[in-house]
Amino acid sequence: MTELLSIKEASSWASKHLNKDVTPSNISYLIQYGRVPKIGENGSTYVNRFDLEKYYAHNSLSKEEIWKGKLGDDLNWDLSFANYKESETTKHVHRLHPYKGKFIPQLVEYFLDNHTDKFKKEIFFKKDDIVLDPFCGSGTTLVQANELGINAIGVDISAFNALISNVKIGKYDFNDIEVTYRYITKKLKEFQKEKNNLAFESELLEELKIFNNENFPSPEFKYKISQKDFDEKRYGQEKENEFLLIYEKLLTKYKIELKQKGNNTFLDKWFLQVIRDEVDFVFDQIKKIKNQQTKKILSIVLSRTIRSCRATTHSDLATLFEPQIKTYYCKKHGKICKPLFSILSWWDRYSKDTLKRINEFNRLRTETKQRCLRGDSRNIDIFRELEKQSADLANIAIKKKIDGIFSSPPYVGLIDYHEQHAYSYDLYGFERNDDSEIGPLYKGQGKQAQESYINGIAEVLLNSKKYMKNGYDVFLVANDKYGLYPKIAELAGMKIVNQYKRPVLNRVEKSRTAYAEIIFHLREK
Ligand SMILES: C[S@@+](CC[C@H](N)C(=O)[O-])C[C@H]1O[C@@H](n2cnc3c(N)ncnc32)[C@H](O)[C@@H]1O
User: Which residue, judged by its Cα, is nearest atom 27 of ligand 1?
Assistant: First the structure.
């Protein structure tokens, strides 16, 4: 069979086929090194689509084989979810707000749904059951349980995480949200007219365009960077300093204040004064919203907006180093870039995106009940708290008890869960309970931290047992690099009855080592 593709066509076909970016130069490489045969016609280069398909099929197969060789034949390749597109792993409400450390919805589905396969030989949960997630995080278990017709209770120590979870599974008046966000957007635009940051930004953008065209012409500049004898760092620094003179002049002309006066809170430190003014303005508008559900969802939109407007360089968005309040040479874009001076575009974009996502979920949702409680899973009285917050779900739960757990606990010394949303704690004034987090980053990974982690997770399981039926099933997703789970199970009076090994592919892109996460299945001893 033949189906000839030009290099460009081959690159877009392969990008779709593999669901990742395959550039024309990737294709040229395959031809040049004889991985796929070159077909020449009238001086042009083509490849046969079926040759490419064969090449990629063979290559992904060998990756699976290599990994199994390293991690064992019981590696469940299906759990890598490698064939899912990003839009599926972040479907509908799962992308309402960034959250470091969430698991993908397909993993939850795999264990909660009613399929069986070579690895999952039993069905563990059925419709109308109740599942508990004592480390609820951003609510992935609650949302997927809802889709599958299963009731769910979540607990999280972080007030902000409980809010995200409850917002995801909330029901809304879509019309009210739309009218309200449009009104706030209109008000924000009026507010901006009273200020001069927009005029400042538009002149700054003009100047940047001229400067960048002259000093970083594309693609010539990218080519220069690829040359060994070109010192990108020095050139970038030189041009950065040159542009700063123009920047300073504009700041003076428009009387723009960059830094805020205070430096006590995260919001003081990581946001330019102009951004802070707009954030406070929108927050004041949100405070006035009468419909509580609309108020909650727009609070999440504002929080997502704020996160995107922190004063950072484009390459440091995930890890904050120093506030970036000036124009700078950006390695990512190969030109001079600027910090943000208005929240409007993100606010507008996220409002629309949120509305679309809650609508999508609304079409899939079942009439089952879910609720995330704020509390410490080591000692929370789950049924009593539930009675206060969701009487319907409390009634069902008290009668039939909880069927089991699906959860991913924090791991020793990896993430500070409160701190990752510090900006929202500042703005909304939620109480912080950093001290009650199990295994936070700030306590490290030493012996003492491991001991306290083991006890903490075991206490959570012991407390959860009070609310579960006999014959419960517990599933814990963990990266147990210190081998702590056998001890945890023992302390909790449970035994590990199975371990599912899931290949974690994304990490490999970075570290290039085969790595598996374990899903521990525990039952009463
Ligand atoms: C790995 S995350 C869970 C992520 C979740 N599976 C998701 O998809 O979003 C662990 C969560 O445990 C919470 N946590 C830590 N200590 C806790 C405690 N003592 N009680 C309840 N939750 C706790 C953290 O706040 C964090 O949200």
Answer: 137
